[in-house]
Amino acid sequence: MPNYLSNRKPDFTPHKINCGSIMAYQFKGTLKDELAAKHLTKARAIDLLEDMLVIREFEEMIVKLRSGAYAPCAGYDYRGPTHVSIGQEAASVGGCYGIDAPDYITSTHRGHGDSIAKGCVAIRAMSNEELRARVPAFKGKDADLLEAALEDHIYKTAAELFGKEDGYCRGRGGGMHIADFTVGHLGANAIVGGGVPISTGAAMACRYLENDRVVCCFAGDGAYANGIVLESLNWAAMQQFTNALAKDKKFGIPIIFLILNNHYGMTHRTDDEVMGVSSMARRAAGFADNNMHAEVVNGMDVLAVREAVNRAADGCRKGEGPFLIEVNTYRYYGHSLSDPRNEYRTKEEEEAWKVVDPITTFSQQLLDAKVLSKKGLEEVIKRVQDRNARACSRAAKAADPDPADVIKYMYTDTSSVEVPAPHNQVKLVKALPEIKRVDGQLTYRDAIKEAMIQEMLRDNRVFFYGEDVADYGGAFKATKGLLEAFGRRRIFNSPISEAAICSTAVGAAMLGLRPVVELMYMDFALMAGDAISNQAAKWHYMSGARAEIALVIRASVGGGKGYGGQHSQTLESVFAHIPGLYVVYPSTPHDAKGMLKAAIRNNNPVLFVESQLLYGVKGPVSEDDYLIPLGVADVKRVGSDISLVAWGPAVLDALKAADQLMTDHKISAEVVDLRSLVPLDMETVLTSVRKTGKCVVASQAISIGSFTGEIASNIMREAFDDLDAPVIRVGAKDGIAPQALCLEQVFLPTADDIYKAALSIL
Amino acid sequence: MVNAIIMPKLNQSEDDCIIVKWRVKPGDKVKKNEILFEIETEKAVLEVESFYDGTLLKIVVPEGVATPVNATVAWVGEPGEKVPDVAPPPPAAAAPIPAPVAPAATKTQTAAAAPVAAVAVTAPVPFPSAAAPAPARRQAVSPRARALARNSAVSTDSIRGTGPGGRVVEKDVRAYLDSKGYGQLRITPAAKALALREKVDILTVRGTGDSGRIMTGDIERSLRERPRALSKMRQIIAQRLTQSVVTAPHFFVTVPVDMTDLLKFRHVLKTRGAPFSVTDFVLESVALSLVEFPAMNSSTDGKTARWHSAVHLGMATSLEDGLVVPVIRNAQDLSLAELHAAVVALAGKARDGKLLPDEMTGSTFTVSNMGMLNIENFTAIINPGESGILAVSSTVQTPVVRDGRIVVREVMKITLSSDHRLIDGAVAARFVNAIKSKLEDINLWKSLT
Ligand SMILES: Cc1ncc(C[n+]2csc(CCOP(=O)(O)OP(=O)(O)O)c2C)c(N)n1
Ligand SMILES: [Mg+2]
After folding, report:
1. How many Å lie between the centroid of ligand 1 and the Cα of residue A192?
2. pLDDT mean across residues, chain B
């Protein structure tokens, strides 16, 4: 019985579509009102000011450092970006105070404020034990603990900007990639818009884990022109999360899209120039019938931002997400310090915004409400200045990373060995689909399915999505029947948003889930270039190994079907060039099962390449729960005269060529299946080549820039004196896959090409 | 408090900036965030604001000067405060232009400083291009075959390649080894190790051990037989003498010189404390004769002849591993005593390798004396650029017919080599006889000493 069948009849009744209205600047509260209404305490009000001051002081330091004018760091030469957010402090602080301390954020290249605020909120909420754990070196009395932890927070932030080992990300990330996963800060992102799908994936994970958490996604107005951001908005608003498809689990994605509208993307004006809407909040109307509860708030008023975010967070916790809030704010400085603002905006505009400066206006409110005296205010300012000075001068003098560690933290060597409760408790909705085994043999397709089933049964943190993977079972039916057994919580259809498919997986992985996603054709991986290459691959390293991105991207390679240039590419070499990613490509059903299971348990991001040419190929596959370690090549046929090194479908061609060489010339060829490009098992290849002295490297990819060249070059370096002939590469013709049958037949490499290449060096 | 205003580093890649305009002058009040000056970076013109309230006390860097980032450009403080006395930073320099090189001058210096050049026969002449033939196309040998040959201590030079394009591949090396009976070859481990280390092809070594076993000594012998590069000096000798033999048609004229009287007189002089050598007498006789025979003190390029008005006598001098020709300048003007002094000085310098280049160039005629080496007669090769060379042999007691009687005399043969392009037989004959008669004329020597 199918899960659901659509039954929508034609209906052309004339009617009017109402896009609703979006409210702006409705908050009228003053500090006095808010105190009276007990929306916050006096102490909390001072915290709001203090944290805005911390941000301002910190960023003014960055400006001064570039002119040698910050006395506590005299002589220190700061290198790195200078994207200061001075003027926007109310947005950062209001946003972080609007959600709860354990909630999550993602941030941007202009993210010092968000990062500082998130840490301050978290630290202020910590118990003494938690504070002690955070600053174990501090041995003073409890009363001074908070102060020590705040100073440590600024120290680690500055140390990260200064590229120090003590930085939040060990100096690997820097200010544009700063993250502190221990307080729910899932990272600033130097890819404009790059954090938005990560937030969305994290929020999806909150929904999945039912942990009552919310994600506040800070991103600029400029980012809201970026495709991945629009994909994310659509993703978060998908009806399947809240309608009948969700059955008893109707719960909207708990995310707040907080648009930091400072009116500029670098120097272009989002108003009146590069966008068609007068208010960024209108974006929401394109993605959800409820306009994502969108509203516009005064971003220079910390109370207004806090109130709106707080309301949205409450809504999220009730399953009403997603929410979208446009925060109208301003950055006083340019995009960076090398930006002469006078080329694109007036002095008068800048002066007008400074009149509504969030810190001066809120300071005045504190004085007016008698929360602080003038003297008290000066004390707060002094406290902040002194604390920042202590922390930053210490950071400037802190130890640099060891240059020998330049590529340390690229990969983690951990994997999921044991599944912790309750994740080992898996409830099936229905019986598992039957997998037909004939004489102990399975197709490659069923081997993948069996691997998926075994891993989803083992660990409920494993879940799966992609285009048409649910009811339909995937374009190549590798997951047919899984939806019925595991339910839509664990398997669902995604929109046609390859970038979001891969990037949301990164966000979900950051929260400890182990997503498996499918790309229907590997060609579409190029749509997800940023997600795979800049996000999935880089976060482990950029976070200084504080995050593990355990996810699997299953990418299916076309070719040989007359589908032409955009559905036929073998692209593993492109991704093998991206450090931080594992890239594997099994050639047999046995390997496909064992390697997919290993990939799902591995804590690195794995690009798992499958071939449509192989889905129907049968081979012996044990029913057992076995793993094949990633990064171990396999000798598929032993020989002594020549080595044929290949991966993917080329392995089968190499085996055929080896038979032919034996039949025709009594030449004994050894076939090495690389299985895994990254990590690379060169030793097995070298052992073979040292024995035979001759080598052909073959893959289905075109040869320009192919990984076959990497193998050939390694052989040359490591086994030069063992070579009796040049290493020959076999691949597709160096061109674009054609549609015409006669053309595609000569385009793709064949067993005969490998056979001829072998003979040419024998 | 006086605060330095620093040239900001607004752009990571910026090393220096130019202040295009000062917005304030010394004495002006400035406020925090007020614009002080405008700078030009590679990206744009930017305004730089003050971080301080106060008075602009002094401008250190004026407009229009490229200034390194982080340099102090001005001072702000209270009126009347003293400004630290720092010099403006040196303007950022344009890319340094390499100092012009005078190739000629450099060359000269190198030549003078290099002692190798000083032992050359004469000033070094560039090698003709034939000396460096175009490299022959290398026989292709696969790395594996090369390694097998190397590890077997055999050369691949005579292995025929059967791989693609005629490349020598592993199986060719194996076939070659088999054909040479490599498997039966007997060699001691130490000899094998030495052969491997020194890359000796053991198939070319004759074994002298029992049943033909190759011993260490055999490898060592083979190593000694290996061609070695000639020293720089020998290469120059080879090149110049070959040039002489090829371009100057030599002919030779020999006369015996009766030295009996002169040797006696030499002994007398020696007891008087004037230790002249046979060389001195020969050189003096040659110098005097050259003045009489200008053709012998000439040179030719085959088209023109050039007479040298001065006699610069080359004196071939043998060294440990070669030969140099120091030159006695203006020998025609020297007394016998001066000539003697010059010979002693130059011979000493030649032995010590201390001759300067111009002490070895410009000779117009050369004398080669092998008298001390116990030979009867020899011919010498003309130093290129000269018309002759005189070969002087040992003085030997010889039965000679005098006035119809056989008597024993001290006879020294001298042989003149002449360049037939300039000199004919008659001239050569007269010239050697002129030398001979001078050496035999004891009155001449009495007048000269
Ligand atoms: C994908 C990508 N494109 C371009 C850039 C260069 N860039 C960095 S910040 C920025 C402007 C971003 O504007 P906005 O999102 O409004 O953030 P703001 O800088 O105003 O905080 C641009 C174009 C980038 N980092 N990433
Ligand atoms: Mg912006």
Report:
1. 5
2. 86
